[in-house]
Amino acid sequence: MSPLITEGIYVSFSITLVAAVLGLLLGIILATIRTLEIPYLNGAAKLYINVFRSLPIIMLLLATYLIVPPVLRKFGIYGDSAFICAAGMFSLFEGAYF
After folding, report:
1. Buried b vs exposed e over 29-62: b needs ≥16 C-beta within 10 Å?
2. What is the pLDDT of residue 82?
3. Which of 61, 63, 62 is nearest to 87 (CA)?
4. Cα–Cα distances in Å, from 50 out to 47, 53, 54, 58, 80?
5. Closest by alpha carbon to 34, among 51, 47, 20, 52?
6. b/e for 68-95, b at 16 or more Cβ within 10 A?
7. What one-character-per-residue DSSP string does 52-82 give?
């Protein structure tokens, strides 16, 4: 196998693992909030779930990849932020479905 393919498989599995774990934790938190039925928190959870379920994941990934790196640079954080953008957005997206 080519080293590039091996590296791509490793990065894909890493993003999947991080997104699944963080998405599951976020989903548990959202489910708990919805179960408690506290008016403002329940409304915020419903809004979050409806927004993330209605937007296409590719649009969210593209927006995150175009917005997050300039913001990080303003705080003096340089480097490749593609992994952080992808894992973070997949986590937020999956959290709305768990």
Report:
1. ebeebeeeeeeeeeeebeebbeebeeeeeeebbe
2. 87
3. 61
4. 5, 5, 6, 17, 31
5. 47
6. bbeeeeeeeeeeebeebbbbbbbbbbbb
7. HHHS-HHHHHHHHHHHHHHHHHHTT--S--H
Rounded to a whole number of angstroms, the CA Rg of the chain reads 16
The yes-or-no verdict on residue 32 having pLDDT over 90 is: yes
Residue 3 has which token pair?
Answer: 């080293």
For 36-44, what is the mean pLDDT? 91
User: 3-class DSSP state for residue 1?
Assistant: coil
Task: Pull the structure tokens for residue 47.
Answer: 């809004």
